[in-house]
Write a structure and sequence with these properties.
Number of domains: 2
Largest sheet: 4 strands, mixed
Distance between the termini: 46 Å
Number of strands: 4
Shape: globular
Radius of gyration: 17 Å
Number of helices: 8
Order of helices and strands: HHHHHHHEEEHE
């Protein structure tokens, strides 16, 4: 009997940790101003410091600026005081069970998109990258996440899958249509417009 694959969040975490190990602490990312060391520290703080959560969740709101400054300070302290290999090991290990992110169901729900995006942030900043051919179940999960992210971008947006004919999601009234693979749509709706391979009309 063939065993079921690990949840997408776990597989993306492992692949990202492998890539962090391979490129080292000074590799570029698609996140402006961040090296691979910044990215790794962000993931560990997000996983292991619940007090950083409000700063991430409310970043775009006026009240969130002060909270986000706290989260950023925790990331900088961790990045500058912890050896990179230790940071990557913490990324690979994941959150402790006593944290909210340590709850398996919540972790897979929240972290699948997070780790897929940040994995691509690092992959697509390296030479010679190409889009990955992901299993259908993974694309379906990323599609659901992309439609949620789209609601935070703006109304008047239509997302259209190119891997499954006839599947699209309208956000608000008719407006810009974005066509692409779910990973590409997720990257676009999360702000990675420069590296997302989508067609706009």
């Amino acid at each position: 009997m063939t065993s079921s694959p690990a949840p997408l969040a776990i597989r993306e975490r492992a692949a990202l940790a492998d890539l962090l190990d391979a490129v080292g602490p000074d590799a570029p990312t698609c996140c402006e101003g961040w090296t691979s060391a910044h990215l790794a520290a962000h993931l560990v703080v997000r996983d292991r410091r619940p007090d950083a959560g409000p700063g991430y969740a409310l970043e775009t709101l006026p009240i969130g600026k002060r909270l986000h400054a706290h989260s950023a300070r925790l990331e900088e302290e961790y990045r500058t005081r912890t050896p990179f290999a230790q940071v990557v090991a913490a990324v690979r290990t994941g959150p402790p069970k006593w944290t909210p992110m340590g709850i398996p169901a919540l972790s897979n729900l929240v972290n699948a998109g997070e780790y897929a995006i940040h994995h691509e942030d690092l992959r697509r900043a390296q030479p010679g990258w190409e889009p990955r051919d992901l299993p259908q179940a993974d694309r379906d999960q990323l599609w659901r996440t992309a439609t949620l992210f789209a609601r935070r971008v703006r109304r008047g947006l239509v997302l259209r899958r190119t891997d499954v004919p006839g599947v699209e999601k309208r956000i608000g009234k008719a407006g810009t249509t974005l066509a692409g693979d779910p990973m590409e749509l997720l990257l676009w709706t999360s702000g990675r417009t420069a590296v997302a391979r989508v067609e706009q009309s």
